[in-house]
Write a structure and sequence with these properties.
Helix content: 40-55%
Strand content: 15-25%
Oligomer: single chain
Number of helices: 12
Number of domains: 1
Bound molecules: NADP nicotinamide-adenine-dinucleotide phosphate, ligand F7E
Structural class: alpha/beta
CATH topology: Rossmann fold
CATH architecture: 3-Layer(aba) Sandwich
Order of helices and strands: EHEHEEEHEHHEHEEHEEEHEEHEHHH
Number of strands: 15
Strand order of the largest sheet: 5-2-1-6-7-8-13
CATH superfamily: NAD(P)-binding Rossmann-like Domain
Distance between the termini: 34 Å
Shape: globular
CATH class: Alpha Beta
């Protein structure tokens, strides 16, 4: 039997790039779609594609495509006949979704339907992972949140992901597809997009230290999130597709912290008093906020043996170190040490 073939939408994003590395390390042939852009958008994958000036023979293949164009999705699926599909592509920013609600629905909701329907119509024998989200719980009705907690979306993003969640369940039940939802709580890393709050904070600190920025402007400091480390979460996506049963899982750390706590922890790591640098600006507030998220990941622990290694305080150190290095400063170094100790064989975890 040849190598397994995986297809990743959203391969250029935080999770897509870690997942591509993980699957390549397990011998997969990995395909992904990228959008045509006026500037290169493969920065998170370049180390896999190029060795200095030379193209690498890495087992990674990129195709132009878009979630709003079913013709390319059908063509790529027909051509590569993947064993596993990971649907990670999304307009993933909650605040931005209030500004582009229709586009968010096209990509995040209808885009998911487009792939599922291509699988159904072609009769492709494949397994399908859907990037569902803790944002589905929104205005929470239960603490902590688990697989059976009712959904109450609070943004166009969450509403689009709610459709995607249910269309996965429906195609599974109606057409017997191996299709499942990973309901993942927030997960972060040095590859996190720069306009999500954790990365905005750690990058802001590096810029303040390098005297490139005087202040950090943030929105609601009281919101609480369950923040984990992204590489550990993408491994779980793969585990879900190796599971004998087709079922949905919640993934998170089971701890919650406010944005203010993230700020305090990261500024104190570099010896700065956050109150001198952080200013609140109303432009970063959302019309409807999700106040508190905290996962109950016991099903994932019991059934698939999943438990996260990286704690909240460690995540902060890993991200601050990486952003200091990215701007040319000597990192404090505790974050790098944590990664070396906890993942000694996995070079790719250090960005
Ligand atoms: P991300 O960094 O924002 O990456 C999103 C990916 O989707 C990028 O590759 C982006 O391409 C691609 N994309 C956006 N619009 C597209 C379109 N119209 N057609 C094709 N590709 C498109 O997101 P992430 O943090 O890695 O998250 C991965 C997935 O998990 C997303 O579906 C997100 O909603 C979901 N999720 C994330 C979290 C989290 O905490 N990170 C938690 C739960 C669920 P470009 O690079 O060209 O923009
Ligand atoms: O906001 C508050 C903001 O944008 C977290 C996505 O990956 O995780 C992510 O969605 C909290 C919110 O992530 C700023 O109001 C304060 O309460 O980092 P975020 P998110 O909205 O939780 C879920 C699970 C996903 O599925 C999404 O795809 O932080 N906040 N000040 C701020 N947020 C931002 N972005 N910028 C600020 O200045």
């Amino acid at each position: 039997m040849g190598n397994k073939v995986a297809f990743i939408t959203g391969i250029t994003g935080q999770d897509g790039s870690y997942l591509a590395e993980f699957l390549l390390s397990r011998g997969y042939e990995v395909h992904g779609i990228i959008r045509r852009a006026s500037t290169f958008n493969t920065g998170r994958l370049d180390h896999l594609l190029f060795d200095g000036q030379q193209e690498k023979e890495s087992g990674l293949y990129l195709h132009y495509g878009d979630m709003i164009d079913s013709s390319n999705l059908n063509r790529v699926l027909e051509e590569i006949k993947p064993d596993e599909i990971y649907n990670l592509a999304a307009q993933s920013h909650v605040k931005v979704s209030f500004e582009v609600p229709e586009y968010t629905a096209e990509v995040d909701a209808v885009g998911t339907l487009r792939i599922l329907d291509a699988i159904k119509e072609t009769g492709l024998k494949t397994k399908f992972y859907q990037a569902s989200t803790s944002e589905l719980f929104g205005k929470i009705t239960e603490v902590p949140q688990k697989e059976t907690t009712p959904f109450y979306p609070r943004s166009p993003y969450a509403a689009a992901k709610l459709y995607a969640y249910w269309i996965v369940v429906n195609y599974r039940e109606a057409y017997n597809l191996f299709a499942c939802n990973g309901i993942l709580f927030n997960h972060e890393s040095p590859r996190r997009g720069e306009n999500f709050v954790t990365r905005k904070i750690t990058r802001g600190i590096a810029h303040i230290l390098a005297k490139k920025q005087d202040y950090l402007y943030l929105g609601n400091l009281e919101a609480k999130r369950d923040w984990g480390y992204a590489p550990e979460y993408v491994e779980f996506m793969w585990k879900m597709l190796q599971n004998c049963d087709v079922e949905d899982f919640v993934i998170g750390t089971g701890e919650t912290h406010s944005v203010k706590e993230f700020v305090e922890e990261s500024f104190s790591y570099v010896g700065l008093d956050w109150k001198k640098y952080v200013k609140v600006n109303s432009r970063y507030f959302r019309p409807t906020e999700v106040d508190l998220l905290i996962a109950d990941p016991s099903k994932a622990k019991e059934r698939l043996g999943w438990s996260p290694k990286i704690t909240f305080k460690e995540l902060v150190k890993i991200m601050v170190d990486a952003d200091m290095r990215a701007i040319g400063l000597e990192p404090i170094g505790e974050g790098d040490e944590i990664l070396k100790q906890k993942f000694p064989d996995q070079w790719w975890r250090i960005d």
